[in-house]
Design goal:
By secondary structure, the protein is mainly α. The protein contains 9 helices and no strands.
Length: 236
């Protein structure tokens, strides 16, 4: 009997936690990321003090939203990349980029929470590092497989400053890049920056009045980044 009561309480708590996060996401869409716990509690239908039983602070709630958004983005990227041919690193990179873009266009407010302007007074804790790294690890796997399968053109002789080379060693260790050359690691970073720069320009209205075919532009940019990385396509 006690176990059933405990299980019921846990289910109620889980449901209420999800309800609070759902309402908080609605507030992201209307008010931005500077959330008010009092306003969220009001729209959930509870007194403001009760919400602290579930989230100890606004930052605690923001962290939960950030982690959820990173995981959803990573799940979408993983599903898209997994459908591409395993021995075609070009196709895998394009699928990864398209999966990230599709999720971002469908969830612009969550994207803004992750990659928009910093939320005043909020500093993301260590809890967010793992979820945030998941899409990067997918790119790392593509690069590792491309190098191992000789499916990447040799990168031109990039001259890396000593500090940048040291940074790439650190990045390679974090992403478990193994035998991926430092020059390719830094090119991966440039491609990743280009991907999210393109998404931010599109989602934050930087193309309005100038670009009418954002799909074609994105495809062009991502193919250019694949060429920059030297990824071979199975079609060639």
């Amino acid at each position: 009997m006690a176990e059933r009561r405990t299980g019921a309480r846990e289910r109620v708590r889980a449901e209420m936690t999800e309800d609070i996060k759902r309402v908080a996401r609605e507030h992201l869409a209307t008010e931005g990321a500077d959330l008010s716990l009092r306003a969220v509690a009001r729209d959930v239908g509870m007194v403001s003090s009760a919400v602290y039983r579930y989230f100890s602070s606004r930052d605690d709630l923001l962290t939960a939203l950030v982690v959820d958004a990173y995981d959803e983005l990573a799940d979408a990227a993983d599903e898209a990349e997994r459908a591409a041919p395993r021995r075609d690193p070009h196709a895998r990179w394009m699928a990864l980029a398209r999966g990230i873009r599709a999720w971002s266009l469908a969830h612009p407010h969550e994207y803004a929470l992750l990659y928009g302007s910093p939320v005043p007074g909020y500093q993301a804790p260590e809890d967010t590092v793992g979820p945030a790294s998941r899409p990067q690890l997918l790119l790392a796997q593509i690069l590792r497989d491309a190098v191992a399968g000789s499916a990447v053109f040799p990168a031109p002789g990039d001259r890396l400053a000593s500090g940048l080379r040291a940074d790439m060693v650190t990045a390679a260790e974090f992403l478990d890049l193994g035998d991926v050359p430092a020059a390719l690691v830094v090119r991966g970073l440039v491609a990743w920056t280009q991907l999210f720069g393109a998404l931010s320009f599109e989602l934050f209205g930087r193309f309005e009045g100038g670009i009418t075919d954002a799909d074609a532009l994105f495809e062009f940019e991502m193919r250019a980044m694949s060429d920059y990385l030297g990824l071979r396509s199975a079609a060639h």
